[in-house]
Amino acid sequence: MPFRHAKESRKVLPLSEKGLCVKLCGTLKDHQPRLCSTVAPPDEITINYRHGLPLITLTLPSRKERCQFVVKPMLSTVGSFLQDLRDEDKGVKSTAVLTADGSEIPASTLMGILLMNDFKLVINKITYDVRCPKKEKLSCEHTAEMENVKSLVHRLFTALHSEEFQKRRERRLLEKIDQLTGRLQPLEQMKARIEARSEAKTSGLLWAGLALLSAQAGAMAWLTWWVYSWDIMEPVTYFITFANSMVFFAYFIVTRQDYTYSAVKRRQFLHFFHKKSKQQQFDVAQYNQLKEELAKANESLGQVRHSLCLRMREELKEKN
């Protein structure tokens, strides 16, 4: 992001800050000083480090003046840097960052990773070669000390902002749950109607099966006692029983499920349900996805509230 201070953010650098210096060239015998300049070209993009932070200096296309952008390597991204550049100069219409071989760098890349190697900055279809200064390698002791400082800062930030972060997350989860509930409400009503009709058809099919078995038993009794004798009907009943066993075995081969009344009822209910869903254009996949998202949101909300509750208990214990 650009450095917003009026004296450092957006100003025309004087010659002393641009790098003009006086060098004494020659020997002491002739005492003939000569002036030479190390002023950077007006269109050159330079990167320097000030107080440990990278300072990118470039010329704005519209105002033709040098502007400095302070970059936070671990927080700023390529996309945020390009957006700050467009916000600073409305004359910047198109921007891009490319690698040295011309490949485009994603906007989500951290600036700290970008500044590790040289790159190209494209502003309004004009390509600028940017050379990144090489940072000196830190000693092992200094590196370990910096890691300890970073860890301490992270713990302090977590301790100071954990409750605020959890409350913001709770609000976001509540808004998401309300949104998902609103989207699920009409689907739930349609699903209830389809389930009621499917349940009615399944129950009717079960009652029809009971009526068929009752009719079969009555027919066998009538043929045994009124038409024929038991000696004639005994092999008939045997073959009927064997035929029923074949039907049950065929059901297992087709469905890969045991023939139980609860399994048959559930299978027929699902058959009627999906058939009705297609007729009424009920999207089962979308409904299942919304239910899963709602369950995950409720689970996350429970975890957030549990952590907040634990934190409140700890604060009460400390006060007591």
TrEMBL record:
The chain crosses the membrane at residues 205-224, 236-254. Keywords: Calcium, Calcium transport, Ion transport, Membrane, Mitochondrion, Mitochondrion inner membrane, Transmembrane, Transmembrane helix, Transport. It is a multi-pass membrane protein. Pfam families: MCU. Its main location: membrane. InterPro entries: MCU_C (IPR006769), MCU_fam (IPR039055). Residues 88-290 form the Calcium uniporter protein C-terminal domain. It is found in: Membrane; Mitochondrion inner membrane. GO terms for cellular component: mitochondrial inner membrane. One of its GO terms (biological process) is calcium ion transport. Belongs to the MCU (TC 1.A.77) family. This is Calcium uniporter regulatory subunit MCUb. It comes from Equus caballus. The lineage of its organism: Eukaryota, Metazoa, Chordata, Craniata, Vertebrata. The gene is MCUB.
